[in-house]
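Model it.
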Amino acid sequence: MDELMAYRYELYERFEKINSPYSFWELQKELVKALLKCEEEIMKSGEAEKEEWLYHQNRLYSISEAMVWSVLESFTIRQLGKFESGKTPLSSQKDTILKIIEKFEPLAKEKIYILADTTRCITTGDVVEVIQSPDKIHIYECKTSTPDEIEEMLKGRTGRQFSKNFWLQEYLERGFGKLYKADLITRTIVVDVTEFQDNFSFLDTLIEECMSNESGSSSVLAEPGLVYVAINTEYIEDAGSALITDRFDFKEPTWTGLSALVEEPRESIFHMPPLAFPISLKNRLHLLEVEVIILCYLDHAVLKDKFRSKGIEFTTSKEGFPELSKGGNSFKFHPRFLNEIMQSFQPIDKVVTQMTSLYDSTLNGLTAEEQTYILERPSSVKEMIDYIHENYILTSEDDTSPGFISIGNKKLKRKPKKV
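Modeled.
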């Protein structure tokens, strides 16, 4: 549908022109209207039209997720997407969302607020306030009625939402902690990777060459063991030569594409959507509208050599997860680490450095501070209530100073530290 594409291009341009908290907010409001329209059309359309609307819907979500990636760090986004949950249709909560928009409208002129339900990468809270870009946030759960006391707030569904957001915020602030219903402690490991330069610099030329080449394809050896291929989808059947990795002497090639960054609901939790790529808008739109597809080939033999030089063995588990081992100690990693190379255009050495540091940290055990935390962390509702009363105060939403989390019209704030 040509009118849908034209509308998307208007939204892409609006994304590019965001220059204030309120222009950020206004685009989100437009996306709410557009997503509601999508759901309505998907419900009543025939199969062919339904596919068009689903395609449109995925790109609307991708715009909103690019907005999130423009104001939050990848680490913070991953934490906000930790809790898997089914995507509730916007149409079933339309009145609630419109009330949320009305409530935050005057505030959004000065501060950045993210409407979580316009994204697939934020799975907790209704609204996320960016207090200090890129990683200090306030999470709001919006309610029509709110218990007055912490004791009541910890009951039922509200209590589960409170606990998820509370322990997530404590973790973000502290750097380690046990998240809601987690068995093990989660720890933030800071790895200095400032010396590494990403591979986004290859993309503009790669895409432009593929659009101008008679073959409809182009490729680049970004570094030994890593090849990116661009294919003009009008010539996809003629682009077979671009897919031959033998010419790069790969021993154990594996590959993936970028389409999942738009089409798959959870990928934008881990990887930047194409609209947020640091390349020209024209080329970002080639990717979003599938006029060009990017494939990445990674040679696992090169990875193995790099890890082996650090005294570590790299393998892939039966489930397809990267795994590191040394001296009988093995640790499985999330697939996102290898996709950092293939979908987020990060250099191999950077990811090897990160994975090695994380692996080494698992061998060190808990620090004294972490052991104390485990012993003192509340393990019952009563202990939780006492812990909150000791360390936090509950104020009203009229309190405009930065808080921790909000449930309905109540804001939880950490007490000032005693001197």
